[in-house]
């Protein structure tokens, strides 16, 4: 209600979209429903308030949570959105035209399943609805898999048969996704990836290893109990799928400036 009053005061000619809470975001790596979205019993009150304030509501949005593993969550949320559309019509409001299905998409094999569920749900709920515009927020889908993080080993030691390495990036930098995005990261020595005849990695024998970030905080631990070959200072560890929610939330803690990490664009030959 406060938001409606705010918009009426400062931007009375804007169009509004009401965000509803997705019925189920339990399959998401990062659920958002505790912070955002109107409950079913709140939607009518908000619509009436917007109507009284002479503000135009043009659509409904929702978000099932970031990195969702449950495609059915879209189906349930689209059905609830259709109920909100019908409620606005019953109140005599102009026909809404926008359905924002949010994000949560990942660039993996599950995407095809999710697309099938979304298309079927829209057809079922809005198949006879003219003029509907469907939009989405597929940020992770586009960004996650196209970036790779390369970190150099800047320190090492062996303690109680565990090999411990310090790398040039960590929890307070690009790898904040481990804490803030509940990410499970994996790394591989660059020498193994590039098939170099590196004596350090030849034979691929691995050891119980810990990987620390560069800062003074013990929380800055990237991996523990991880199997890695014997590595040396100036070797490189490479992390894949590092394009989403990584450098964007990095800090300058302890003098390590995340924004100063260079980004290189690699163009692959189309033949490959």
Which range does the strand content fall in? Answer: 15-25%
Tell me the number of helical segments per DSSP (H or I, 4 or more residues long): 7
Shape descriptor reads elongated
Structural classification: alpha/beta
Kindly identify the CATH topology of the largest domain: TIM Barrel
How many β-strands, per DSSP? Answer: 12
**What is the CATH architecture descriptor of the largest domain?**
Alpha-Beta Barrel
Mean pLDDT: 93
Count of structural domains: 2
Description:
InterPro entries: Ala_racemase/Decarboxylase_C, De-COase2_C, De-COase2_N, Orn/DAP/Arg_de-COase, Orn_de-COase, PLP-binding_barrel. Its cofactor is pyridoxal 5'-phosphate. The chain is an alpha/beta fold. The protein contains 7 helices and 12 strands. The strands form 3 sheets. Strands 9-12-7-8-10-11 form a 6-stranded mixed beta sheet. It has a 4-stranded parallel beta sheet with strand order 1-3-5-6, covered by helices on one side. Helix 2 (40-52) packs parallel to helix 3 (72-90) and helix 3 (72-90) packs parallel to helix 4. The longest helix is centred in the first third of the chain and has 19 residues, at 72-90. It starts with a helix and ends in a 33-residue tail after the last strand.
